[in-house]
Amino acid sequence: MDMIEAMKVAVAVARRNSFSSGSRDLRLSAASVSRIVADLEADLGVRLFNRTTRQINLTDAGMEFVQKSTCLLEELDLMRSAVRERHETPRGPLHVSCVTAFGNECLAPAVPEFVRRFPQIEVSIDLGNRLVDLLGEHFDVAIRVGPLNDSSLIAQRIFTQRIVFVAAPQFCEQYGTPRTLDEIRACPSVTQVSGEWGRVHRFSHQGKVIDFECRSI
């Protein structure tokens, strides 16, 4: 037996002092309402309603049951409303770990608008290039750049960044302008490598995809 449904039926019947009127409020058949009340009384082992051919009245046990059921059903509705509101309106602390460069250049400028849209969220950002333990260090989300290790955590791509090779005119005057990947590999260079990110670059040339690995220094 569904106790919540039975409580709703008992409250509706008591409010209307009628099985038929209570059934209409609940959009159930009168037979279904009578059966639910009978099953409820059998489960509780007490009579909730005194029935006559002309009217029904609550017994003392029925009055106590209906009063407590009314309070419980109201609490249930309040709980549902609170949970739905919390889901529809994000709130609470949000602890974010983010790589330094992306955090300074992309994330920080977006935070004021985010806080304006979601004023009930308390944002804290930890900038750094170390790999954090999201669960152990109580981070809600981590923003990382580059390939990710296998993990049971959920990852979502939010941005695609292109890496380009550039050289100053003075560099080309001194070392020449490289035309092939081998010539690029032979040139002195400054690269940004964090973990595995930045070590391998992917080029598309004449319909072919070529992975270019930077020299280790």
What's the quick description here?
By secondary structure, this protein is of the alpha/beta class. The protein has helices at residues 3-16, 19-26, 30-44, 60-88, 100-117, 169-175, 181-186, and strands spanning 49-51, 56-58, 92-98, 121-127, 141-143, 200-205, 208-213. The N and C termini lie far apart (72 Å).
Name the helicity range. 40-55%
Major sheet details: 3 strands, parallel
> Which structural class is indicated by helix and strand composition?
alpha/beta
Number of strands: 7
The DSSP helix count reads 7
**N to C succession of SSEs:** HHHEEHEHEEHHEE
Shape: rod-shaped
User: Which regions are unreliable across 5 or more consecutive residues at pLDDT < 50?
Assistant: none
What is the rounded distance between the termini? 72 Å
